[in-house]
Amino acid sequence: MSTTEARLREALHDAVDALPVADDDVARMERDLVAALAGPGRSPVGLRHRRQRWGLVAAAAVLAAAVAGALAVTGDDRGSERLPARPPTTDRPLVPAELVGTWRTVPDNRRVWAFVADGRVSVDPTAGDFLEADFKDRVVTRSGDLYTVHTEDGCDETVRIRIVAPGSAALSGQRTTCDPALGPETEETLLERVSPQPFLGGELGRPRPSTEPGFLPQSTFVEGVWLHVESGTLLAMGRPWRGELLRYVLDDDGDGKSDPDQSGRVVMPGAGPPVFQPDAATGPPPCHLAFTSLVILHDTMTTRTPPGACLRTRGAGASQTWVRIA
């Protein structure tokens, strides 16, 4: 046992010795408090800056106050049975329809957000992270526009997500159990929907530079999350789990993170556009993804598709313009 842990235990026992608390309860509080001190709180869904740890004395004082408060509520009769905890009340669905789908932060468009109706939430800075299909955070309760999110750090963090307009939202952190002293954020993070039905009243609706014929194909830079704005189709190409294998997902209904329309491997030939090989385990894809040419200029990608390929079957024409989302 370290010196810090020894002092923590002494402070804990000093605080609760005068209270009628069972040894099992003290042991449990020791574990909870040590775990809280071991890791500082993460930002609400990854947005807040980390704060410093609580001091030992303050932690012991907070714990003693909590124990005393609990005893005041339950009374001194230790012979009485404890009432079973009531499940927290919540609005349903956990994530409303107007928030379900794929979003991005603006004006900084380097984070992709995915919201699923069952409460799963992800925030991905790269295409590789998006392709991992791993949801580390989950909404556990909702009251109007206040969401309690249980994060991978073990914290319960409350955030407010306001729907500003259809396809536009503003997010701000309110409180977190990992740092109760941390107050509400004064600035909001702006989000805009990218799929389904991209929000064209913001960044996505602004004019984009065109890629004129003659630019050399830059297949090296295909990795990213790309959006075909006109159809709301999302194409993510990256290396999940920081591996060597280049993979892709294609989706046009907003659930590309959790249930993509198509997924598979990307093969980069020595010359020409990438070749897409769908996963055999998921059955035949709904359409054939193929490009006859691919040109990238900054954060804009222009592709051409053969007859019968995915984007052409969705009314996108022979040439498509994509915007990099992440």
Automatic annotation (TrEMBL):
Q: Give the transmembrane region(s).
A: 54-73
Indicate whether Transmembrane appears among the record's keywords: yes
Q: Where is this region: Disordered?
A: 253-282
What does the UniProt keyword field contain? Answer: Membrane, Transmembrane, Transmembrane helix
Protein name per UniProt: Uncharacterized protein
